[in-house]
Specification:
The chain is of the alpha+beta class and 192 residues long. It folds into 2 domains: 2-72, Glutaredoxin, CATH 3.40.30; 84-186, Glutathione S-transferase Yfyf (Class Pi), Chain A, domain 2, CATH 1.20.1050.10. The protein has 9 helices and 4 strands. The chain has helices at residues 10-22, 38-43, 63-72, 84-112, 119-136, 143-159, 165-168, 170-179, 183-187; strands spanning 2-5, 28-30, 51-53, 59-61. Strands 2-1-3-4 form a 4-stranded mixed beta sheet, with helices on one face. It is globular and about 45 Å long. Bound molecules: glutathione. Residues 9, 11, 33, 47-50, 62-63, 98, 105 line the site of glutathione (GSH). The site of glutathione has 11 residues, from helix 4.
């Protein structure tokens, strides 16, 4: 199988860290979504990364779906409860962390076009702040959830150094300090 992804995509980084922890080989087909490469568009008509292509040609898109696929391939994994309330809690943590990424990507693509103010952008900043506060209370509920949280926080470091999430949420800072240097995080840190 191969994962269409850029080295800076935080959604892809979540999957690469997960694959590392699950000891699943996940070869990368390095692809910038903005290039609209034919191979990516053939795999994912949305033109987004990450997209996973299996050896039989089957395609899986959207990082939560790909994450679920990877986790399902290792039944003895301990990163997320297989069923029950704890399972849904962990997936909700993933969704909140991904939601921070979604808001950050809106800010990022607007900034690239020179748009840095406006009601819609302010709304994204508020969503990020609120979600960070909630995620700080969800630390330690699941290994997978903690990975998702730290991926989102480190993406803010990469693109929005002015967002002082460490000052606002010291518990997140402590989690990032604990996980950020583990081999999976170190091996997938995006180039500056
Ligand atoms: N919900 C998707 C979001 C993926 C996403 O937005 N990826 C960005 C790169 S980090 C992208 O490909 N953007 C290009 C575009 O929106 O056209 C997921 O979780 O995989």
């Amino acid at each position: 199988m191969k994962l269409f992804a850029s080295l800076t995509s935080p959604y892809a980084r979540k999957l690469r860290i997960l694959a590392h922890e699950l000891k699943i080989g996940l070869p990368l087909e390095e692809t910038s979504p903005l290039d609209d490469a034919a191979a990516l568009l053939a795999a994912n008509p949305l033109g987004k990364v990450p997209a996973l292509v299996l050896d039989d040609g089957q395609v899986i898109v959207d990082s939560p779906v790909i994450a679920a696929f990877l986790l399902a391939n290792v039944p003895e994994q301990k990163l997320i409860a297989a069923t029950g309330a704890a399972h849904w809690q962990a997936l909700t943590t993933e969704a909140l962390a991904d939601g921070i990424l979604d808001a950050a990507i809106v800010l990022r693509f607007n900034a690239v076009q020179g748009v840095t103010t406006g009601l819609w952008l302010e709304r994204q900043y508020r969503a990020i702040d609120r979600a960070l506060a909630v995620l700080a209370m969800r630390i330690g509920h699941s290994g997978f959830g903690d990975i998702c949280i730290v991926v989102a926080c480190e993406y803010l470091d990469l693109r929005f150094a002015h967002i002082d999430w460490r000052g606002a949420q010291p518990a997140l800072a402590e989690l990032q300090a604990r996980l950020g240097d583990t081999p999976a995080f170190a091996a997938t840190r995006p180039p500056a």
